[in-house]
Amino acid sequence: MKKIENALVILAGGKGSRLNKPIPKQFIQINGENLIHFFLKRMDINNFDIILIVHKNSYFNHIKKLKNDFPSIKFLFANSGKNRQLSSFNALKKLSPYKPKNVLIHDAARPFCSNKLIVKLIKQLNNNDSVIPYTLNHDKKIFSKVEVTNTIKFIQTPQGFKFKIIYNAHKKTLLENAKDDSELINKEKIKFIKGEKLNIKITYPEDLNYFKLFSKTVFKTGIGYDIHRIDTKSKKGLKLCGIKIEYNKLIGHSDADVGIHAICDSIFGALSMKDIGYYFSNNSSKWRNKNSVHFLKFARDKLVKNNYYIVNLDINFICEQPNINKHRSKMIKNISSILKVPEKIISIKATSNEKIGFIGDGLGIAAESIVQISNEKTY
Ligand code: ZN
Questions:
Q1: Cα 292 to averaged position of ligand 1 atoms, centre (Å)
Q2: pLDDT tens, position by position, 32-48
Q3: Could you read off the pLDDT of 268-280 as tens digits, one per residue?
Q4: CA pair distance 312, 251, nearest whole angstrom
């Protein structure tokens, strides 16, 4: 077996009830990733030979993907115990056959810990058995009427240990509900090092705002264009952006809603997907006379799945007739309700083709759409 130098334990068994969320905080998705993924992505994973995640069985779904996201590292999983101390002990028991030299034990609720701090902890373990980061709080505290300057050490994680030292401490301790692993070690033998102010513990809902400081906002843009021929003989009416309009019919395999088709393609483009014809082929009888709203809902679901939000949607019709202006507000309302976005971020415009060419002769209607999407919700 390859010699295991450093192991990382991430304790993710907590319930996080103070956040009032239906799932524990470590599994809340922020910009498409949970706290554990966020933390691992920002550090150099090669610092470790093994990463072990302690979790409640019922939440395995939220972490099993990590194996695919970080294929270069060996992942182990262990069940959480009744409290933090027992969860940590479970992790060490599971790691024991691998005989790691060092172990860093970290709380999943501290996703902002930097790679620099991790490297510092590992380095300090060359000369120390236990290395614990701390911060000082220089805010003044007032106890009734006595003002004191607070120099209490605030202990953080990750906490670094020689594996044997912390494993033995867990085996021998008389404590039953230690708040962290450092409590199990004689304070005299701990090397305290400076932690990081930003390595905060996500505890309250407002703490989630810290993600804004760390995460990058991504914008993507997509373009869509569609054109359908007008059936000059049929007065059956047509649909644009899902709104029925009294006019000639548009010819197409589905309901020929040129507006919705252009919007779909712009969304697919922004998501680096293929075009609408790929997903809803003209050759498939399944989509014959299909209501195009179905296609738009498919595009909307892709946005949701990829954690993107529409920032702006700009649609442009090119036709001589019908008069788009008359239907504009109805169309905006309809698209806004299908895509579940505010009306104010949708624009519908129209231009004629100055009687030039195919469109100018009133034989077709074209639509263009440009959409901007972002991983951050702007409304
Ligand atoms: Zn079309």
A1: 9
A2: 788 899 899 889 999 99
A3: 999 999 999 999 9
A4: 29
